[in-house]
Amino acid sequence: MAIDGSRAAPPTDPPDFGTREFPAALVNVTNRCNLKCTHCFVYRDANPNASVDKMNDATMLHQLEVLRDRHGIKSMLFMGGEPMVRHRLVLAAMSLFEDPSIVTNGTYGIPSVPGCLVTVSLDGPPEENDAIRGQGVFDRVEQAIRGRDRGDGTIVMLQMAITKENSPGIERFVDVVADWPVDGVACTFYVPRKGERSDLAWDTNQERDEVVERVMALKEAYPDLVRANVATLRLMKSDQCGDHIDDRCALKAMLPLYVGDGGVFERTFCCYGNDVDCNRCGAYAVFNAARHRRQGSTPGPTTPLRD
Ligand SMILES: C[S@@+](CC[C@H](N)C(=O)[O-])C[C@H]1O[C@@H](n2cnc3c(N)ncnc32)[C@H](O)[C@@H]1O
Ligand code: SF4
Ligand code: SF4
Fold it and tell me: Which backbone phi and psi does 79 adopt, to 5 degrees?
């Protein structure tokens, strides 16, 4: 009931995204973020990112529930912007799904969600991370991770998005976080814009191969900590990666929900938005899902621990 005694309008239904089943989806619960990371795909011009929190909590909860039932969504990845900006909404919406998970920048603390995966992003050792994520961010995230109750049942993983620019720091990063109370360290590689030539993107996948091999070596050196699968990493090498991208991308089975004009859900080309260069896609989840597809298993792109 509103203050004037009138009843609030019932929440509207989501747009029609067809009838296809999507076992997994992601939702940008807000376009707001307290950081301005240099590599972030969310704020690219071609993406729906201008409308800020125009969809209220009740409408978002209702629409997520309708979409869950329409498309058979089981896994839901809560993303943003920074999802913890709307943490009450995220915690309420998680209960709608069988397999909810969160990816966060960690600066608002680490949410306690027993049994669920929380991926915390850091992009290198302190200096390199802060050059990307902002001054003091590495220390804040470390404090949040060390300060949390490790026995609460939340699965916490760190994730480094590896670009050409921060790639020299991957070994030092793993070294620095090796004694942190986390369940693993994951990595994913940069997804560039179409035609992008920048310090972040490798011009060719051949140039990226050397870094993929270094991640394989890290997996060998830290088999329990580094949550990457060597067979998946092999599929990322330049002689094979072309077989698993674009039309054949297994991540296209995931429904990406961005909030567009007027606070209405929009489906983008893929999870990484509308302006992406599939030919140089470095999304680990693409190749991990491809490996599972080959093996006849079904991981779901947000499978905890990513093996
Ligand atoms: C877009 S952020 C949103 C959630 C939260 N704000 C965070 O930083 O974790 C989700 C993840 O995407 C990664 N990411 C951002 N831009 C990327 C890009 N162009 N290629 C690959 N990963 C990227 C981030 O590093 C982060 O791990
Ligand atoms: S914290 Fe996340 S959403 Fe915010 S700018 Fe960085 S990568 Fe993008
Ligand atoms: S950019 Fe990557 S995740 Fe997106 S459709 Fe292309 S191959 Fe798939």
Answer: -135, -175
